[in-house]
Amino acid sequence: MSQRVWVLGAGQLGAMLQHAGMPLALDVRPVDINESHAPSLSDADLVTAEREQWPETLVTHTLAQHSRFINKAVFGRLADRKTQKELIDSLGIATAPWRNVANDITANELRDQLGERVLLKRRTGGYDGRGQHWLRTDDDQVPDDWQGEAIAEQAINFEEEVSLVGVRNAAGDCVFYPLTLNLHLNGILYASVAPLARLQPLQAQAEAMLGNILAALDYVGVMAMETFRVGDQLLINELAPRVHNSGHWTQAGASISQFEYHLRAISGMATPAPQIIGQNVMINLIGTTYNPAWRDLPCARTYWYGKEVRPGRKVGHINILGTDVTQVRETLVLLGDLLPAALYTDAIDWSLKALKD
Ligand code: ATP
Ligand code: MG
């Protein structure tokens, strides 16, 4: 009988884990946390999660109690931005300067400590830029609903955003993908490009940062580190203890995808270094209705999540891969014509420029 792996959560990440599990002879079962029946687990099963935070439900209670819930202690610690920042600070790793937003702290105190531009972030539950609030220059007080519930961060004048996705196995060995360049618009990831030769000089710095964190947490599986590049220094923006949107390009562009690595690591399989294939660009599909013409693009593969389309919601992504960069560029231009200009002109232009640099 094949090894069963339960995934807490049944969104697109769970689905892509399930897909990656089939060739590994793993029986991967994403579970909707609001399901009315508890999954029936056996002792030999493994449990992982596609999200770092969850409410208490019958399903989450059942899965989180299992003795083989991998990295169980890590989720709560990283899902709360305050404890995540404390961990990064305790390891002496660079991160955007921050303060806890205690109930009695004023907006002026935060500006005195962090500078003129201060970003409030909810300690838990935020994603895709939701759960963020820029402090207004005329605010004296922290808005009521942010007091005691948020951290405050200094606005970082970064040159660009770069992420590292890596995996650590139970023996403590780590493997990392090449750094990925990311474009966020309004707090949401639109495009990723990897690999890029000009980011190579930052690779060792990034691997040391994430490697230290993985070891400190005795973590097993895939973790992503989002950073800001300021000159030749990387500052951590945030950590995600799971497969990550900025690693989706590895489905096409690496011999072992991030989804496969995560499953390999948690189930005790080998985690050999990946072969990286060609030039990759990933474009997120955000609030866009399905267009069958995407499927006809050369060197592109569309992943559609089957979710209801709503403005600002991630509903799929397209991986473009080519060993010939000219072909990747041509595909990007063709794709640009098949996406709403208002949302995508900047993202396509940015991607084309990233391939030129
Ligand atoms: P995710 O969906 O990745 O979990 P999120 O909503 O949890 O995102 P962050 O990753 O913290 O939030 O922030 C989203 C984006 O907002 C960042 O990628 C960056 O573009 C911008 N941002 C966040 N923090 C800062 C900062 N301190 N200074 C400047 N820009 C920032
Ligand atoms: Mg983020």
TrEMBL record:
<dbReference type="InterPro" id="IPR013815">
    <property type="entry name" value="ATP_grasp_subdomain_1"/>
</dbReference>
<feature type="binding site">
    <location>
        <position position="161"/>
    </location>
    <ligand>
        <name>ATP</name>
    </ligand>
</feature>
<keyword id="KW-0067">ATP-binding</keyword>
<feature type="binding site">
    <location>
        <position position="121"/>
    </location>
    <ligand>
        <name>ATP</name>
    </ligand>
</feature>
<feature type="binding site">
    <location>
        <position position="184"/>
    </location>
    <ligand>
        <name>ATP</name>
    </ligand>
</feature>
<keyword id="KW-0658">Purine biosynthesis</keyword>
<comment type="subunit">
    <text>Homodimer.</text>
</comment>
<feature type="binding site">
    <location>
        <begin position="237"/>
        <end position="238"/>
    </location>
    <ligand>
        <name>ATP</name>
    </ligand>
</feature>
<dbReference type="GO" id="GO:0005524">
    <property type="term" value="F:ATP binding"/>
</dbReference>
<keyword id="KW-0456">Lyase</keyword>
<feature type="binding site">
    <location>
        <begin position="153"/>
        <end position="156"/>
    </location>
    <ligand>
        <name>ATP</name>
    </ligand>
</feature>
<keyword id="KW-0436">Ligase</keyword>
<dbReference type="GO" id="GO:0004638">
    <property type="term" value="F:phosphoribosylaminoimidazole carboxylase activity"/>
</dbReference>
<dbReference type="InterPro" id="IPR011054">
    <property type="entry name" value="Rudment_hybrid_motif"/>
</dbReference>
<dbReference type="Pfam" id="PF02222">
    <property type="entry name" value="ATP-grasp"/>
</dbReference>
<dbReference type="GO" id="GO:0034028">
    <property type="term" value="F:5-(carboxyamino)imidazole ribonucleotide synthase activity"/>
</dbReference>
<dbReference type="GO" id="GO:0006189">
    <property type="term" value="P:'de novo' IMP biosynthetic process"/>
</dbReference>
<comment type="function">
    <text>Catalyzes the ATP-dependent conversion of 5-aminoimidazole ribonucleotide (AIR) and HCO(3)(-) to N5-carboxyaminoimidazole ribonucleotide (N5-CAIR).</text>
</comment>
<dbReference type="GO" id="GO:0046872">
    <property type="term" value="F:metal ion binding"/>
</dbReference>
<feature type="binding site">
    <location>
        <position position="81"/>
    </location>
    <ligand>
        <name>ATP</name>
    </ligand>
</feature>
<dbReference type="Pfam" id="PF17769">
    <property type="entry name" value="PurK_C"/>
</dbReference>
<protein>
    <recommendedName>
        <fullName>N5-carboxyaminoimidazole ribonucleotide synthase</fullName>
        <ecNumber>6.3.4.18</ecNumber>
    </recommendedName>
</protein>
<dbReference type="InterPro" id="IPR005875">
    <property type="entry name" value="PurK"/>
</dbReference>
<feature type="domain" description="ATP-grasp">
    <location>
        <begin position="85"/>
        <end position="267"/>
    </location>
</feature>
<dbReference type="InterPro" id="IPR016185">
    <property type="entry name" value="PreATP-grasp_dom_sf"/>
</dbReference>
<keyword id="KW-0547">Nucleotide-binding</keyword>
<dbReference type="InterPro" id="IPR040686">
    <property type="entry name" value="PurK_C"/>
</dbReference>
<dbReference type="InterPro" id="IPR011761">
    <property type="entry name" value="ATP-grasp"/>
</dbReference>
<dbReference type="GO" id="GO:0005829">
    <property type="term" value="C:cytosol"/>
</dbReference>
<feature type="binding site">
    <location>
        <begin position="126"/>
        <end position="132"/>
    </location>
    <ligand>
        <name>ATP</name>
    </ligand>
</feature>
<dbReference type="InterPro" id="IPR003135">
    <property type="entry name" value="ATP-grasp_carboxylate-amine"/>
</dbReference>
<comment type="pathway">
    <text>Purine metabolism; IMP biosynthesis via de novo pathway; 5-amino-1-(5-phospho-D-ribosyl)imidazole-4-carboxylate from 5-amino-1-(5-phospho-D-ribosyl)imidazole (N5-CAIR route): step 1/2.</text>
</comment>
<comment type="similarity">
    <text>Belongs to the PurK/PurT family.</text>
</comment>
